[in-house]
Design brief:
Bound molecules: adenosine-5'-diphosphate, magnesium ion
Oligomer: single chain
Strand content: 15-25%
Helix content: 25-40%
Order of helices and strands: HHEEHEEEEEHHEEHHEEEEHEH
CATH architecture of the largest domain: 2-Layer Sandwich
Largest sheet: 9 strands, mixed
Shape: elongated
CATH superfamily of the largest domain: Histidine kinase-like ATPase, C-terminal domain
Length: about 350
């Protein structure tokens, strides 16, 4: 049974960066404004994420790493909380099957923090002879998740990993993208023992500022911005779409994009795609948007595009598992066309 669990977990957690992505989303769901990541050996030895979010109640700790344990779906009609992929309560459980998982957490009402260790979905004692209860300890409000020895028991997964530096750069890439998408949240990433962070963002920033900080001035100075939706079809520049109230009707959607103009050229396209606040990939969308630039940029040159798309959770293909790289949703072609159109018009109008 544990072998099956391990294999299933390996399908969800592919590498340190995919574990990080799940944990980041948990931090953000918990309302954190500060997220600090510490990494040893590309996340294979240690991947630690500290947040200042709502914390986990002590009473919830015993079952935290059981499969399908989630605090995020209290009512059936609570659709806005469903993240994109019909995938609930699997991240921590999966991690506990392929790594050593520890959690330190404190809610505002608790007088001290609690620490718990998990193995194969269950709370375990920290040291031999101790009862498997959470242990009181010092700690700030919020949660620290500590993953050690990832894939220690799954040699095939371990051997599929690249070098520690390659895994670390994937971690930084995921963090960088989430930092752009969440400019109000401060992100820090450092190697364990290193005095200076490799990534550090302020809180209360805005997306263009985050892009400048993380991707550089040469991209940031050539950015255009559009925000638009299926209902109100317009290039109402600088008018943010409503946060937290995603599209409620089936078929309705909203999008916001920051993208480079004709002055910026890169060899490789940089594409950040968030659907319902989750970082995803869509080669179809990527190709379509790159094609918009074919009349704008010389051959071989590529743009930077950040695109945040909000669609009704019911319109996302729930049969596609979240870890499958490619995402699919209702009316994908129609939405892609409209986004391409809007970008095209915006690029055309600024070159006049
Ligand atoms: P899901 O996010 O789908 O609910 P997870 O396995 O990722 O499932 O997490 C299980 C539960 O653990 C969450 O529903 C949440 O209650 C709690 N949790 C995990 N990480 C955090 C965190 N950083 N802050 C607060 N609660 C958390
Ligand atoms: Mg989660």
């Amino acid at each position: 049974e544990s072998l099956i669990n391990r294999i299933a977990a390996g399908e969800i957690i592919h590498r340190p960066a995919s574990a990080l992505k799940e944990l980041l989303e948990n931090c953000l769901d918990a309302g954190s404004t500060s997220i600090r990541v510490t990494v040893k050996d590309g996340g294979m030895k240690l991947l630690q994420i500290q947040d200042n979010g709502c914390g986990i109640r002590k009473a919830d700790l015993p079952i935290l790493a059981e499969r399908f344990t989630t605090s995020k779906l209290s009512t059936f009609s609570d659709l806005s909380r469903i993240t994109t992929y019909g995938f609930r309560g699997e991240a921590l459980a999966s991690i506990s099957h392929v790594a050593h998982l520890s959690v330190v957490t404190k809610t505002k009402t608790e007088t001290c923090a609690w620490k718990a260790y998990y193995l194969d979905g269950a709370l375990v004692e920290g040291k031999p002879g101790q009862t498997p209860d959470p242990k009181p300890c010092a700690g700030n409000d919020g949660t620290t998740i500590i993953i050690e020895d990832l894939f220690y028991n799954t040699p095939t997964r371990l051997s599929a990993l690249r070098s520690t530096s390659e895994e670390y750069s994937r971690i930084l890439d995921v963090l960088t993208k989430y930092a752009v998408h969440n400019p109000k949240v401060s992100f820090v990433c450092k190697k364990a023992g290193s005095p200076s962070p490799d990534l550090s963002t302020p809180s209360s920033s805005e997306i263009p500022q985050a892009i400048r900080l993380l991707y550089g001035h040469s991209i940031a100075k050539d950015l255009l911005h559009v925000a638009f939706s299926s209902k109100k079809k317009a290039e109402n520049e600088d008018e943010d779409m409503e946060e937290d109230s995603g599209p409620q009707d089936s078929g309705s959607w909203a999008a916001e994009a920051h993208f480079t103009n004709a002055n910026y050229q890169s060899k490789k396209m940089i594409f950040l795609l968030f659907i319902n606040h989750r970082l995803v990939e869509s080669s179809r969308m990527k190709r379509a948007l790159e094609a918009v630039y074919s009349g704008v940029l010389p051959k071989g040159a590529s743009p930077f595009i950040y695109l945040s798309l909000q669609i009704n959770p019911r319109d996302v293909d729930v049969n596609v598992h979240p870890t499958k790289k490619e995402v699919h949703f209702l009316n994908e072609d129609g939405i892609t066309d409209q986004i391409s159109d809007t970008l095209q018009r915006s690029l055309a109008s600024q070159s006049n």
